[in-house]
Every structure is written in C-alpha cells, then in structure tokens.
Amino acid sequence: MGSIVKSMTEDEMKQAAQWFSSLKAGPWVKVVETDTVPKSYVGKGRMRFVAPGNETEPLGLRVVELPEDPIAATKRDPRSGFVAYVPKGSVARGAALVTTGGAGKTMACAACHGADLKGVGDVPRIAGISPLYAARQLLGLKNGDRGGDSAVMMKAVTANLGEEEIVSIVAYLATLAP
Ligand code: HEC
Q: What is the pLDDT of residues 29-62, one digit of tens each?
C-alpha cells in the first residue's frame, strides 16, 4: 500500500474515499454454523481458499472464512461475498453476550455502540462487521496492541473474554445487518 499511496495526489485520495463511501455495505459475509469445514489453505491476498481434493476437517474453535467465488475474490470484486463457518451454537452464545453482557463476563455492547450497534458519534458500528476483523480487534483491544484514548473504553469489555466468547461474539455480529 505504501508505494500505491505515494503516487496518489490528495485530490485522487478524496475521489477514492468518495467512491468507497458510496458503495452499499454487505451482505458480505454469510454465517453458517457447522462442525466440519472444507480443508483450506491461505493463498493469494492472505485469503483462505478451498484446498484441492474436496476433503473436510473439524472446525473446532475457529471461524473459517472462504470466498463464495474464489476467482472474483482474488480479483477483489467488491460484490463477491464470503461464507464464515462458525461453531454450532456460537451465534446464540454471542447474542446473549452482546445483548446482556453475559452476567458480568463483559458489558452490553449497545450501551456505547448504539441500540442497533450501528455506532454513535466516534464509537464505531459493529453490526455486520467482518468476523475475522472483529476478532483481531477484540484481541488487540484486550492485549493492548490496539491502543489510544478511545481504546481504553474497550478494556473492561474485553478483559475477561476468552477465545470461545470472542468467536461467539464475532459470529453473532456478522449475522446483523450492517
Ligand atoms: C464503554 C463503552 C463501550 C462498550 C460497553 C463496548 N464498546 Fe466496543 N468500542 C468502544 C469504543 C469507544 C471503540 C473505539 C475504540 C478505538 O477508537 O480504538 C470500540 C471499538 C470496538 C470494536 C472495533 C471496531 C472497529 O471498527 O475497529 C469492536 C469490534 C467492538 N468495540 C466490539 C464491542 C463489543 C462486542 C461490545 C460488547 C460485548 C462492545 N464493543 C462494548 C466502546 C465500547
């Protein structure tokens, strides 16, 4: 990205920003609960693709995101979506944590992110965000990799979240309309 940005004028950056903000969000990711997933590998663009041979493997405590159309995804087609395979029961577990805070495990997200989780002021939208992105942010906010003045507000929210809770929360958030 560094070399791409260096050759852009400020005007071109504004034009690009306007174009991106004119795109309609989602539905990018379709959430599917399952015990087994197609075997996959990390390929071009650091995306996962189905491995040749059509074999399956246990999902375990993971979110595995695979493109609906591998060729379109490789070409970065903004209209081509992904399927996120999540553990069985994770959407319901995530819904409980997000809406109630799970009896002190975390906090009800709507308190800051807004009733529909679509953001309020500087607090970002979390409804319908990419589950892999969301999981990375929650881990980063928990361990301090993502810092800054506003990140402090997520400290208590993430302090007691384990892997299962994070997987469940991001699975649920991905089912919501952006
Ligand atoms: C006390 C207020 C507060 C509560 C409660 C809260 N958040 Fe946040 N959250 C924030 C703020 C503020 C940010 C922006 C942090 C920053 O700027 O780095 C944020 C950022 C995030 C992000 C990163 C979004 C992005 O676009 O990068 C995620 C994901 C997130 N919150 C999830 C949650 C979830 C899930 C819950 C409920 C379990 C929750 N938050 C509850 C205040 C809150």
A: 999 999 999 999 999 888 999 999 989 999 999 9
Give the closest residue to 160 by CA, choosing from 103, 81, 75: 103
pLDDT above 90 as % of the chain = 83
Instruction: Determine the Cα–Cα distance for residues 1 and 21; give it in Å rounded to an integer.
Output: 19
Which residue's alpha carbon is at the smallest distance from atom 3 of ligand 1? 112
* Cα distance between residue 122 and residue 114, in whole Å: 11
Which residue has the CA at smallest separation from atom 5 of ligand 1?
109
Q: pLDDT digit string (tens) for 83-126? A: 999 999 999 999 999 999 999 999 999 999 999 999 999 899 99
Residue 57 CA to residue 46 CA, distance in Å, equals: 20
CA of 125, closest atom in ligand 1: 26
Q: Which atom of ligand 1 is nearest to the CA of 134?
A: 29
Q: Are 55 and 140 in contact (CB under 8 A)?
A: no
